[in-house]
# Entry
Amino acid sequence: SRILTIQNEYIRARFDPETGLLVELENLDQNLLLPVRQAFYWYNASTGNNLSDQVSGAYIFRPNRQEPLLVSRWAQIHLVKKALVQEVHQNFSAWCSQVVRLYPGQRHLELEWTVGPIPVGDGWGKEIISRFDTELETKGLFFTDSNGREILERRRNYRPTWVLNMTEPVAGNYYPVNSRIYITDGKVQLTVLTDRSQGGSSLKDGSVELMVHRRLLRDDRRGVGEPLLENGSGLWVRGRHLVLLDKAQTAAVRHRLQAEKELLAPQVVLAQGSSTPYHPG
Amino acid sequence: SGDSAPLNEAMAVLQHHDAVSGTSRQHVADDYARQLAAGWGPCEVLLSNALARLSGSKEEFVFCRCLNISVCPLSQTAEIFQVTIYNPLGRKVDWMVRLPVSKHIFLVKDPNGIVVPSDVVTMPSSDRQELLFSASVPALGFSIYSVTQVPGQSPQAHTSKPRSQKSS
# Structure
């Protein structure tokens, strides 16, 4: 069909049938509809330039240009619709795929991304981000957490405690995200929960990005003495971003409860089932 | 007997900024991972003992550490097995359990022996499949679900062809 959606009682996510990319998120419960474009991009890692010979490395994130490049402008997709789950499997490239998932009763959209091995045959180190672009008028502000406890307001190209001379327009606006990053226009809030610490930012109004993987070819001369260049199972990463769309005044209760469930997720233990009584008799 | 000290020790060592932020050489990062894995082993014994005592039955408990890549030898081969879900939160949660299974139909029963809705989803990019069922787990507690393979039945083979997009 021309309309490609997955939904449950609370959420509807719509995909562009031409590109296979997420284009819209709807909170059916609160009657909110937000055009959200999500895609993967990569920053070309700097190897030093006329301004500074600082390269991007384990300690330093320094892209060689402000605009990241799209991993792919479209995805090959598979749609799975069953009673207990609705999924869109997106294949962007040989090293980048994602499953967008909705379970019954779930109030967030789950994006399980799998990235790697990042190709570096062209001699360029790459830093991969997942970016969400919306029309929200966020006035240069975004919010990131500190260890899941405190939410800090971030303002683009600004520091609250000194007059900032911004020399790195991308890296200088990246902040640590331990569990969540969000943007709001005061009425609607888009929150992205992470399942691990990542770097994140909002480099344009209405936009949120999180760095999911890096593969670099140079040492950044800060003491490690080798590039950030995994050679084993670290070549691949798989993780999840949980996306919540809420009214600004009710968003906190949603993301706080969900983030707790994410951080303290249930443990699954299996057994063959041939048990013997623990207590005698 | 189980022991959580090795994992505590590993977590203590990994407070170093190199472990937190990945700014170490490869072999150091590998050693951090080794310490965590070595610490997790004795914890599994500790968890098994606690579950045996609390559930009243000794089991050969199995921990599948690669569920995120759909690998779990026990659930992929056993015709009958039980799934214990432990909830560390101080409130009841409903949790969708996903387990890699062989190509069969399964019956899932809750702790009261009542059949619960379950589904089998085939992963498009591979012919693997996963069993899904929603588990309800009490606060700071656990629930034990039983899974039984329904003999002679396999899921209807649905050939979902990839919807190739026009290249742009």
